[in-house]
Write a structure and sequence with these properties.
With 88 residues, the chain is mainly alpha-helical. It has one domain. The protein is built from three helices and no strands.
Length: 88
């Protein structure tokens, strides 16, 4: 997947995950894109773990199922970032 598709997927997944996740999350557009890209990797890796039984670093594609997986991964990334930022 090219870099433009990664940015679009990251922006969509990060923005939707921030809208769904309860509470206030700081950060601007760059943080939202990075959160979405990390979420795509987290979601894709978890999806490959559940689908194949082996953990591999994989990302989702720019499609509706890929977006849903990326949103779930972004919500996990928001949760983990909240844990890290709270302890710091």
């Amino acid at each position: 997947m090219n870099i433009i598709a990664w940015i679009v997927l990251g922006l969509l997944a990060g923005a939707i995950a921030k809208a769904i996740y309860p509470g206030h999350q700081g950060g601007g557009i760059i943080a939202t894109i990075l959160l979405g890209i990390v979420g795509a990797f987290v979601g894709g890796s978890l999806y490959s773990l559940f689908a194949t039984g082996s953990l591999s670093l994989a990302a989702t594609s720019l499609s509706i199922p890929g977006l849903i997986v990326a949103i779930i991964g972004s919500m996990i990334a928001i949760f983990l970032w909240g844990l890290i930022a709270r302890n710091a």
